[in-house]
Amino acid sequence: MSRFVSILVILFLIDYADAFAQQNSLHPYRQLQTQLASGWNTWNTKSVLSHVKLPEGLAVNIGFKNNVISGNRYLQESYISEKDPRPEQIVPGHHAYDGSYTECTVLWEGAESKVETAHDGNGMVILVTPVRTPQYKHHLVIEVGMLWNMKGVVQHAGKGIVAKVENQSWQIQSSAPTIEDHLPLSSPYLAFYHDKPIGVSVGKPRTLDQIRALVLKQRLAFESGLAKFGNLKETYLAQQSVLAWNMIYDKQRNAVIAPVSRVWNSFFGGHYVLFDWDTYLSGMMAGFDNKALAYANVVEVTKTVDQWGMVPNYVSAHRYGSPDRSQPPVGSMAVYELYQKYKDKWLLELTFDQLLKWNRWWPKNRDTDGFLCWGTNAIPPDDAAHSWQGAAYESGLDNSPMYDKVPFNKQNSQMALADVGLMGLFIADCKYLAAIARELNKTAEVRELEARAGKYQAALQKLWNNDFGLFLNKRTDTGEWSYRLSPTLFFPLIAGAATEEQARRMINEHLLNEQEFWGEWVLPSIARNDAAFKDQDYWRGRIWAPLNFLVYQGLKKYPFKEVAHSLAEKSNALLLKNWQESKGVFENYHASGIGRLPEEVQVRSDNFYHWGALLGYMYLLENEVTGF
Q1: Residue 82 dihedral angles phi and psi, to the nearest 5°
Q2: 16 pLDDT tier (thresholds 50, 70, 90)
Q3: Predicted confidence band at 82 (pLDDT cuts at 50, 70, 90)?
C-alpha cells in the first residue's frame, strides 16, 4: 500500500454479517478480545509514550518540555504534545506483548532520554533517564486523564495525582520533587526538572530504588524469553517488536488490532487503518507465538467485507475506505494456516461465510473472457487515468512497471491484462477455502470451490509461455505477452497450479537467474534487467517482504526445499542487516540491501511497518521445521 490514496475518499457502510454479530461475552472471539484488551500497554495509537490501562481507559502520558533561556528571558518554549503529528523521534527497544516491560529512546530538540516502563498487574512504574541534556532547561511532564470519553475522575492530591474509576483508585507520584510549570493541557499533570533519573509510580507509592528494581525484574523476564531462540533471537525480536509497538486498541471497533504502523494510522486520520493483504499476512506472522493477536488481525480485517461482498483495499475509522476495489486474496490462506497450528474450529466458522462472499466477488467483478484482471468500480469511466490507478492499487503493487501503458477497459472497469499473480492467488484462495469447507462439512461449498479452482487453473495454463519457461501476463485486448517480470509470476506455485516440470523451469530459468531475481539481496519487485529496476521507487525495483514470503509459500508446495531455505536465509539476512544498523523494520528495501539510502530524500518506506518482518518470519519457520 502506498501514500497514493484515491482522490475521492468515499464513506460507505460495512456489512457486519450475522457471524460477527455474535459479539457476546460467551463467544470465543469476544473472550479473546477481552483478554487482549486488558492491563497497561501502549494502546493509544497517538503515541507510544501514552500508557493506558484497559478496560478502564486511564492514560498516563509521558511528555517533555524545552525552555531556551537567555539571561533571565525565555526565548522559546515548546512542548511535544502541542503538535500533531508528534515531533519527537522514537527509537524502539524491547516491548513485551503484554506491556509488562517497554523501553524506548526519545530524541527531541537536542535532548535524549531513555524511557522504561514496567507493571506487575494493576500498578505501573515509569523510569525516565536523561542520556543527553541540552544547555537549556529540559522538563519531564506526566499527564493523567481518561481516554475515549470513558468514565473516571482524575485530580490533584497533595504533590501527586489520584485517579478513580468506579471502585478502583491509583496514586500517581514521583521520586523527584514537582515544579510549577504552566502548560496548555486540559487534564492534571506533574512537571519535573529532567536532569537526573526520575521514577513515577502509578498505583501504590514506590521509591526510586523500588521502581528500578521492578523495571529490572521485568526486563530480565522479557530477555529470558528471548534466550530460548538462541541465535535466532534478533530475528524473532525484530518480528515481535514491530508487532508489539504497533498493537493498539480502537474504541470504535472495541478491539485490539495491529495495523501496519502508527505512522499510517496518523496518515488516515489518527485512529487506525486496516489494509487488506497487509493485515492478513501480519496475522499469519503473529501466529508464530501470539495466537490472540493473530486471530484479532484476521478476524477484524475479515469483518470489513462490505455490502458488495469484498474485503476493501483499506478501511479506516468512521467507516471510511475504498469501496471501489479490493486487494490480493490471501485471507483464506491466513485463516487456514492459523487453524492448522491452533485447531480452533470456531475461527473457521466465524470467517467462512465472509471469505466465501469475497471469493465469489472476484469472478463476478474481475473476469474478462475467463481470465482475472485487476480493476476498480467507483471512478467515472471517462476518467481513465484514475481508473487505471485504482486498479493498480487493487493489485497491491501501486506503481509496478508491469502495468505501465496497460490500458483501462472502461466497459468492464478492468485493466486489459490477464494477471498471473491474481489468478495464482485466487486459485489458492479457492483451494484453501475448500479445505476450510471440508472441515466444516459444507459439501456443496466444497464442490463449488473445487469447480471454480479447476476453471481458473485451466485458464491459467493458457498463460504458460513454453518458449520462455514462465507464466506471463497477457493483454486481453491485443493478446500480446507481457515480458515485464515480477515475483508475482511465481504465485501459481502457491496454488499448486504449475506442473512439476513447469515449476522446475520457473525456478531454474528465472527465480535463480541473477539477471532477473537472484543475488545477494532478493527478491526485487521488478526483474534486475528491466529498465525500471534502476528507479528503486516503491514497487519499481525495491524489495518487498510480502513478495518474498508468498514466493516462499509457493516453493514449499514443490520439492524445492533447498531453494525455499535459501530464500528464507537471504531474506533474513536483509532484515537483520537493517535491524542491527537502525532498529528499523522497513516497508520495503532498496535492492542494494538498505532500507533507506542517505541520498534518498523522499523515499517511500515506513521504517517500522509490520510486514517487513515477514523477511525473518520465513527463517523462523524454516528453523522451526528443519531444526537448523
Answers
A1: -75, -15
A2: very low
A3: very low
Integer angstrom CA distances of residue 178 from 131, 194, 469: 21, 11, 72
Amino acid in position 274 = L
Gap between the Cα atoms of 628 and 626, Å rounded: 5
Confidence check: pLDDT of 76 > 50: no
* Rounded (5°) CA angle 566-571-573: 95
Q: Which residue has the cell 483464506?
A: 332
Closest CA to 59 of 46, 72, 71: 46
Residue 92 contacts residue 608 (beta carbons within 8 Å): yes
Is 475 strand, coil or helix?
A: strand
| Structural domain spans, the chain | 45-227
Amino acid, res. 97: Y
Query: Where are any strands of DSSP class E within 221-297?
Result: 248-250, 255-257, 273-275
Give the residue carrying C-alpha cell 462490505: 306
- Whole-model pTM: value is 0.94
Cis-peptide, bond into residue 87, ω within 30° of zero:
no
Q: What is the CA radius of gyration of the chain?
A: 26
Please confirm whether the linkage preceding 259 is cis (ω < 30° from 0). Answer: no
How far is residue 295's CA from residue 278's CA, in Å, rounded to a whole number?
14
| Distances 457 to 326, 373, 497, 626 between C-alpha atoms, Å | 21, 15, 6, 31
**Is 45-227 a CATH 2.70.98.110 domain?**
yes
**Phi/psi at 496 (5° precision):** 65, 30
Q: Kindly state the cell numbers that stand for 465.
A: 509461455
Average pLDDT of the chain, as a whole number: 91
CA distance 334 to 294: 9
**C-alpha torsion 252→253→257→261, nearest 10:** -40
Question: What pLDDT does 267 receive?
Answer: 85
Distance of CA 556 to the CA centre of its chain: 24
How many residues comprise the chain?
628
Classify residue 85 by its DSSP letter.
Answer: S
- Low-confidence winner among 6-15, 92-101, 243-252, 290-299 (lowest mean pLDDT): 6-15
- Please state, in angstroms and as integers, the Cα–Cα distance from residue 154 to each residue in 49, 203, 351, 409, 536, following that order: 19, 13, 41, 60, 51
pLDDT for residue 403:
98
CA 303 to CA 583: how far, in whole Å? 33
Q: In Å, how far are 88, 370, 538 from 606, measured between CA atoms?
A: 16, 38, 11
Strand partners, 137: 67
Q: Which three cell numbers stand for residue 315?
A: 478501511
What pLDDT band is residue 17 in, cutting at 50, 70 and 90? Answer: very low
Which residues, listed in sequence order, are joined to residue 138 by a DSSP beta bridge?
A: 66
Question: How far is it, in rounded angstroms, from Cα 286 to Cα 284?
Answer: 6
Cα–Cα nearest to 473, from 404, 537, 553 = 404
The pLDDT of residue 23: 55
C-alpha distances in Å from residue 189, one per residue of 106, 163, 165: 20, 12, 18
